[in-house]
Amino acid sequence: MEQFYKRWLKTTPAILDALFYNTPDEGSQTLTVLHVGGRNAYRLANYYDFVLPIILFLSLSLPNTALGEKCYCPTAPFIYMISDYIENIAEKYILEIYSKQNDSMMTLACYAGLKKICLERQNCHLTFFYTHNLAVSLNQPNLSSVPTWERNGITFVNESIVGVKNTDVFIDRKNSIYILSDDKKQIIVWHNNSINPTQTISADFLSFSSIFVTPNGDIYISSEFPSFHITRWISKTKIFTKVMNTSHHCYDIFIDINDSLYCSMSMNNQVSKVNLKSSSMNTIVVAGTNSHGSNPNELHHPCGIFVDVNFDLFVADTENNRIQLFPFGETNAITVAGWQSARPTINLNGPVGVTLDAKKYLFIVELEGQQIIAEGPYGFRCITGCYGDGYQSIGISFPSSISFDSFGNIFIADFINQRIRKFQLENLCGFPLNIPRFCSKPVWNRNGITFTDQSIIGLNPSSIFIDQKNSIYSLNQEKKQILIWNESNIESTRINLSDFSYSYSLFVALNGDIYIDDGINHRIKKWTLNTKNFTNEMDVFSSCFGLFIDRYNHLYCSMPEHHQVIKRNFSEGIPAIIIVAGTGNQGSTSTMLTSPHGIYVDTEFNTFVADCGNNRIQRFELEVKVGITEVGDSSTAQHQYSLSCPTGIALDSQRFLFIVDSNNHRILRSGTNGVHCVIGCNGISIKSTKLYSPSNLAFDNFGNMFVVDSGNNRIQKFQYSKNSCDMSSIIQWTHSLTLTKDSQLYSQDCNEENHYYESFQIEVPENRYYSIWSSADFDTSAFIYEKSFDSLHPNENLLTKDDDEAFDNQFKLELPLYNNIIYVLVVTTRYPMKTGNITIHMSSLKNVNVTRLSTLVNIQSNYSSQLTTNNPKYCQDYKNLSHYYQALQIYVKKTGLYIIWSKSEIDTYGFIYKDNFDPLKPLHNLIVYHNGACNQNQLKLFINLQENTKYIFVITTNYPNTTGNYTIFISGENHVTISHFFDSKQHNYSAEVQCQFYSTTAGLSSDSGNQFYSTTTTGLSSDSENQFYSIQISSVLIILMFIEGLINNLFILF
Q1: Nearest C-alpha neighbor of 973 from the set 899, 890, 863, 889
Q2: Which residues lie closer than 8 Å to 951 by C-beta, 6 or more apart?
Q3: Where do runs of H (alpha helix) occur along 756-888?
Q4: Which of 992, 986, 980, 934 is nearest to 955 (CA)?
Q5: pLDDT of 583 over the 90 cut
Q6: Chain centroid, CA 825 distance in Å
Q7: Domains 463-666 and 731-853 share a fold
Q8: For residues 422 and 414, is the Cβ–Cβ distance under 8 A?
Q9: Which end of the chain is more exposed for a tag (fewer CB within 10 A), N or C?
Q10: CA 960 to mean position of chain CA atoms
Q11: Strand partners of residue 306
Q12: pLDDT tens across 181-229, in order?
């Protein structure tokens, strides 16, 4: 049975360990991001709860009874089991409807989970076999997303107790603390959170280096004399016995849940183990090769080790400045932190200790860096010794080991300072604002919903804050009010700011206190939630456009008028103003700012500044006044991208920057995959009108984005498309096409070159990123249009294109598409007049509706003739009879789309009229026309022709008095009849006849997509003759009225 549990456990902890959360929203998000395999495995794991509750009660409660624990403990496992059962049932319900948010069920799961944590802290034996609680005997606390510890720490014990050489500290799950004193040859023990030592164990050995204590109280220590070995002190007999011989000194020892004892031998560059259940003390090498190196199977001076419940071995590879993970049974390691890591982590400087919390996040001791590094969902960060103050009384100097108590407090063996330091866990809740977790390419609905408008928020709003409960805060500057919308409330609560003037920003602390800019009065004020009173909190030089509070309780202010960012530490007795960035003078160097606006401080205390006047985003590391350009035009920028007065900034949990690019009226997202527009995005020829001079943004805990749309005096909400990051089951659409000499032609840049193409209409089922790419034996290009594509106006409605030489000379488009928009994909070639086979690929999660639009050229008729001086003229220029023309009558046998084009050495111009054509009235009955633009100066007409309808096609020239040969081609559904159109009046016009030009409003075909210059309408009505005579009559009446008025004036004068 034990082996069955271990085999089953081996397949599930990776899933179960990921499911930690502190709020209903965090829990729902955690369950949502599981892929199909993860969800199925987690369901399978939870189904064990239906058959094991009695076994759990017996296996957990009875051992506590036998161990003589206090009366609460025998029942605690049963309560724990019930809580775990309720939590899993709630989670299972969420999993079955994982695409939806269910606060009530998730709250139930959270409550049960918190009850489990409370029980874990009652010092009862709650270790059991079916979840992550099957753990080693030391503490692995369940911490929040961004825990914080007291910066300075306190001295738990000093040299007077532990002597001058203490290298290791161990804390068991009952919070008993064990410390080795080498010079006193003692093991000193503090049981049950006692202040003073409660036990000392004499150990007549030399050169202690490491200690480990098992749940039954047996103590294992490594020493060097009289030989290199590990000794066990048996708690029942109080005697020492040798359990492992080693070839060299063990820097660290560890015992896994299967009673295997591990030893890291720094000088041998190896980690070996022995099975304590075996009578043999023969060791097995599990990591390293006995020679130093930096390959995956090598180590260089390994120190601290940790073995998790999966028997995966973590090694602090000191001289290689990395943490190595050796999966169970593997000799090649994966670098999980430091040098040569497969993913960006952190640079390490002499790591000597490593441990894991309950979520399998790393905590690393740096000997040379003299820091403690913590991993979390947002990456790595320094948590103690971060300021280079190791030799001062408050710091640590050459720390050698780390251990947690059950409350999450950290104990450090501070080797040089000859003491043990304790760092109290302070913050269990993380940031007060939301730090959502997105994938690399999330999508929001690009049409915002107005959350609040000018009637509520006033003119020119600039502030917004959303806490983890989704309460939304903003300021009405005109009415001097703080506006608060609690979650699910439509109406806002209002707090009056009687003595404030033009407050630009606010920030809400974890305890609900609100910090408000009152910079015009040279101060920041705090509204205290408990007392409902205002107090002065910080003096400033001018208004703060941005306010921020970091996790160490520093209050930051960005002052556009003074070109600086400053902060104040409220943890200090007499807090002083500290300059974070800027010199006080405007400028564009790396130490200067010009009108800084929004600010954001991450968990590593990097300060990000929206440097509006310099059109860039600057990052200032802790206590460094030289900024790094993250986004901007500079050649040194991490991402070169043009900004125009960025005013707001935020980070998600993946450290992607969200930037309010104010003067470009858009929101950008910047990260490892470049800079992308997410809201208010323009296409190549499409201008967005979603935002106007936005100033700030914030997220709720669902990932929805709220943007302060200052120019429109409102706050806009953009819904996050949750499915946009789901890539669990990709569907790939493919289509093969052949570009031939019968394919449609167009000019990509309206020049002298033509390209064959095919076009497709695309309708997507959901908002998300889509990939569209080609495979062919020649260079391909692709263009995406919104709504429609007109080959004679290829720059209209153009959203994006890919015609460069990347991706093996094949086009590849990755872009967000939205389900309420029709797109047109044009597939063509990079070089003109190329033909061949192309396969188009498109990936999505659901079937995409793709319809072919273009048809092959199918010439039904052609007609060749010439324009000579014998041809009639007509009023193309609406002034004189100056252009030779020929009129042809067209009949079609089948209604459909037809294409008419010319080939000629002269520049041609084409017009199509319905029913009749009068050369003196060029707009009368006109339905479509083309002057040769974007077609090498040759006419080309796309038109839907109706059967049994008379059409007159007029071919003429762009320039007056031009003659030459031409050929007309017609492609379409069926045969087309072309004949001469003869009007008995057309040869009777003299040069003196004046053209009759007027505009009406009827009937240019929408198929052409053309415009009759910029001064004409798009069509003419069938009753234009009546309109013409009405104009003539009106003109006569106006002249008569003028004459009458003139006569009356003469009578008055005389």
Answers
A1: 899
A2: 889, 890, 891, 912, 913, 914, 945
A3: 806-809
A4: 980
A5: yes
A6: 27
A7: no
A8: no
A9: C
A10: 59
A11: 314
A12: 887 888 999 987 778 899 999 887 777 789 999 999 999 999 876 678 8
Residue whose C-alpha is closest to residue 94's, from 77, 110, 71, 78: 110
Tokens of 503: 């407050």
- CA atoms of 636 and 617, how far apart (whole Å): 12
Asked if 415 and 149 count as a contact pair (C-beta separation under 8 A), the reply is no
Q: What is the DSSP string of 168-233?
A: -EEEBTT--EEEEETTTTEEEEE-TT-SS--EEEE---B---EEEE-TTS-EEEEE-BSSSEEEEE
Query: What contacts 979, CB < 8 A, 6 or more positions away?
Result: 888, 889, 891
Region 799-807: mean pLDDT is: 76
Q: Is 453 exposed, middle or buried (0-12, 13-18, 19+ CB in 10 A)?
A: middle
What is the number of other CB atoms lying within 10 angstroms of the CB of residue 874? 25
CB burial string 301-331: b at 16+ within 10 A, e below: bbbbbbbbbbbbbbbbbbbbbbbbbbeeeee
Residue extents of the structural domains in the chain: 148-426, 463-666, 731-853, 859-980
The amino acid that residue 54 corresponds to is I
Tell me the average pLDDT of the chain.
Answer: 81
Coil, helix or strand at residue 40 = helix
Counting beta carbons within 10 angstroms of the beta carbon of residue 334, is it exposed (0 to 12), middle (13 to 18) or buried (19 or more)? Answer: middle
Among the CATH numbers 3.10.170.10, 2.120.10.30, 2.60.200.20, 1.25.40.10, which is that of 148-426?
2.120.10.30
Could you report the per-residue pLDDT of 460-477, keeping only the tens digit for each?
999 999 998 899 999 999
CA trace torsion 319, 322, 323, 326 (10° rounding): -80
Q: Cα separation of 464 and 698, whole Å?
A: 7
Task: Indicate the CATH number of 731-853 among 3.50.30.60, 3.30.70.240, 2.60.120.380, 1.10.3720.10.
Answer: 2.60.120.380
Q: What pLDDT, in 10s, does the model give residues 892-917?
A: 999 999 999 999 999 999 999 999 99
Closest CA to 854 of 782, 937, 787, 789: 789
CATH architecture entry for 859-980: Sandwich (2.60)
Question: Long-range contacts: 588-592, Cβ < 8 Å, 24+?
Answer: 588/614, 590/618, 590/626, 590/627, 590/628, 590/629, 591/625, 591/626, 591/627, 592/563
pLDDT in tens, 723-757: 887 766 678 889 999 999 999 999 988 887 899 99
Q: Does domain 463-666 bear CATH number 2.120.10.30? A: yes
pLDDT at residue 667 is higher than 90: yes
Residue 1014, burial from CB neighbour count under 10 angstroms (0-12, 13-18, 19+): exposed
Q: Tell me, what amino acid is at 690?
A: K
Helix (H) or strand (E) holding 401: strand 399-404
